[in-house]
Amino acid sequence: MKTVSQHLINGRFVDSHGQDTVDVHNPATGALIGRSILGDEVDTERAIAAAKAAFPAWSATTLEERKRYLQRIADALTERMDELVAMTVAEYGAPAFFAGYMNGQARDFFLLAQDVLKADNFEERYGNATVTKVPLGVAGLITPWNGNPWFIAGKTASALAAGCTVVVKPSELSTLQTQILMECFEKADLPPGVINVVNGIGPVVGNTITHSSDVQKISFTGSTKVGKQIIRDATDTMKRVTLELGGKSPTIVLDDADMDKAIQFALTAGLLNTGQACIAGTRILVPESRLEEAKTAIRTGIEALAIGDPQAPDTVIQPMVSQGHYERVQSYIRKGIEEGAEILVGGEGKPEGYEAGNYVKPTVFVGVTNDMAIAQEEIFGPVLSVITYRDDEEAVAIANDVAYGLHAYVYGVNKERARAVADRILAGRVMINEIVDDPTRPFGGFKMSGLGREFGIHGLDAYLETRTVFAG
């Protein structure tokens, strides 16, 4: 069993001042695999002070110097990639193929960040005015458990490229993965204080970061409820805030679609990361006239999904990250039944043979109306709702009739028609007939799904402030 008892502060590992602990269980087996000592306000204030002290020198580095440091981090991650993937499988329960992809992209964020380090992205001339973009200062980065290394890397790479120093508060459910990341950051040998990482819980470490007058920027990924509190707290010190929050994404299957292909597409979108993804397409909108075809295709598609050991190469359905989250998903399945929806496949309880882990049966409801809780609230598990519509107008109305607006999917044969539907959906990203991930293009949400954008030049801009100097 591994114990994590230190934080990365001012370029070195230091023992935790906080003494609260959290046990780490393998979600596939329930076995205890680790224990972490969590940081407190003192640890967090030390990290903030280190980042503040390091900022003047780091913000003055040249773009070429930052590129070299970003490359060092990428190289360190490459050396530890196999370990990081294995720990993501063990601690989080992610299928091996997904853990490999996710951590590979975490490394790539530091490579891609080098591409935006161009002088034109930091300075423009307009007559006698020079417009420069300057780093904000200390950035507080608060990340979730559903892809912890990926989120830490994406935010950290953009912040460092911009010239900011950082204090990272990872999820307390991901401390074993975070330990490997911290060791990679230390190996990269950046100037002391540029990257600081404090393991801990949101109400302690997160709140200290959010309330500190020495932190100029917050980037948070997580629930809409917490995001609202962060932006309220940040107003006291006028922090710049980027929020990537919840989602309840629709997948619109148009009536000209090949139903078998369309449902395979919809199930892939809906069960991304076993539904533990803010972009998961958990509302499947199908033409009323083709509902029976869709139901048949769903049954066939779900039966083909491999549930099992996350280390197995063909596993698609993973366990929920914790017992508590398993219970949350079960409560939504019960709520769907209580609301009058019909279970087409799945249901309450664990799949046969997987009673030891936090496994949820992939569950699809039909007879769902868009006002039901299972159609409006983010469940964050393998629970999908099928909603029927009569025409494109109604499909768009249903898709937009939700508090969120992070992501959406459209599937149809007529590309012009599919694009016309996509253009009317209120979401930060819409994918037509494909599921792709491009970390160079802006990512973020409309409505309750957040504020601001991440990735690429947009991610860089989120850590910069604009100054205009007029020279007569």
TrEMBL record:
This is aldehyde dehydrogenase (NAD(+)). The active site is at E244. CDD domains: ALDH_CddD_SSP0762. It is an enzyme of class 1 (oxidoreductase). Keywords: Oxidoreductase. Residues 13-469 form the Aldehyde dehydrogenase domain. Belongs to the aldehyde dehydrogenase family. InterPro entries: Ald_DH/histidinol_DH, Ald_DH_C, Ald_DH_CS_CYS, Ald_DH_CS_GLU, Ald_DH_N, Aldehyde_DH_dom. It catalyses: an aldehyde + NAD(+) + H2O = a carboxylate + NADH + 2 H(+). It comes from the Bacteria. Its EC number is 1.2.1.3. The lineage of its organism: Bacteria, Bacillati, Actinomycetota, Actinomycetes, Kitasatosporales.
